[in-house]
Design brief:
Layout: H1 3-17, H2 19-27, H3 37-42, H4 55-89, H5 111-146
Helix pairs in contact: 4-5
Length: 180
């Protein structure tokens, strides 16, 4: 065995035999028992507040969830559509039939058709996310218009009299003009 092959063999042996045992030791290390109670309460996560994120970021997160959530459905529909188109273009040959009708010797899509199918599915998922955004935005605007206006009552704060005369009428009303 040459020295180079021996060098490679030893490195492979070390990295495959020793390294997998060293990584968990550093990743799953335990904390020391000397931590105080204040340190433990500082490490407790706090739930997010509603005002912590701007509205556009919440809308972007919703669009992200809707787009990725609709991607598998859009992929199924576009694959079915491409298979149906191939079935139609090849004179209804059973080898090109879409998924539920496929026979055992079916001709699969080529790479370009798969890429086109996936691209259309991604585009449709983004369209679904944009439509969802517009629907939610319309509902919020409609809700704002139909909601009664927020009326803040006018509160007059009168100073407390140290004499304890609660029945004494105030000399001046703050809502009206001061008398001269």
């Amino acid at each position: 065995m040459s020295t180079f092959k021996r060098y490679i063999f030893i490195n492979l042996l070390l990295w495959s035999g020793v390294f997998p045992f060293l990584v968990p030791l550093s990743v799953f290390g335990q904390q020391s028992k000397t931590t105080t109670q204040t340190n433990q309460t500082q490490n407790v996560p706090v739930p997010y507040q509603r005002e912590e994120f701007p509205t556009w970021l919440l809308d972007l997160r919703r669009a992200d969830i809707v787009a990725f959530g609709s991607l598998p459905f859009m992929m199924f529909f576009t694959t079915f559509a491409v298979d149906s188109y191939r079935y139609y273009m090849n004179d209804w040959d059973r080898r090109y039939a879409p998924w539920p009708l496929k026979a055992s010797g079916a001709i699969e899509m080529d790479e370009n058709q798969r890429i086109a199918s996936f691209s259309v599915a991604v585009g449709l998922s983004v369209v679904v996310a944009v439509v969802d955004y517009l629907i939610v935005k319309h509902k919020w605007e409609k809700q704002k218009k139909l909601a009664p206006p927020i009326v803040t009552p006018r509160i007059t704060i009168e100073p407390w009299s140290p004499n304890g005369n609660e029945n004494e009428a105030p000399s001046q009303n703050r809502d009206s003009e001061p008398s001269q």
